[in-house]
Amino acid sequence: MRIFIDADACPVKDEVYKVAARYGLKTFVVSNGFIRTPLTPTIEFVMVDAGPDIADDWIADAAEPGDIVVTNDIPLADRALKKDACAIAPNGRLFTADSIGQALAGRAISEHIRSTGEITGGPKPFERADRSRFLQALDEAVNRERRKRR
What we know:
alpha/beta
């Protein structure tokens, strides 16, 4: 089991590092720009070329069943689920086979509304409660995958 962080705008990298250290999990921090990461052999920074979806493509190609992908990107979460990996948003939202279709549809509707020139409010601010939900969701995902391997 490994963790992949879609790191460009991820507000919970430090939380992932702590959970990964607790369980001894290899973690890949994937970005198209430099991000400082802890100097430990279990955390690997991967810099990809700049461009749309390059980091997402790297993560989707590398993820395997049982891995965990931390991302806000709904299409990447869908790709992770199709590989039997777990996908968690930084606010603790767990993407599932049952919820991903609705998430993709909502994203498409939002993109259409923005393409008409409508000004939307954007996402709500990231809060302490989101961080707490994320930590709980990540810990539960790790333990769920560990139980599957026993």
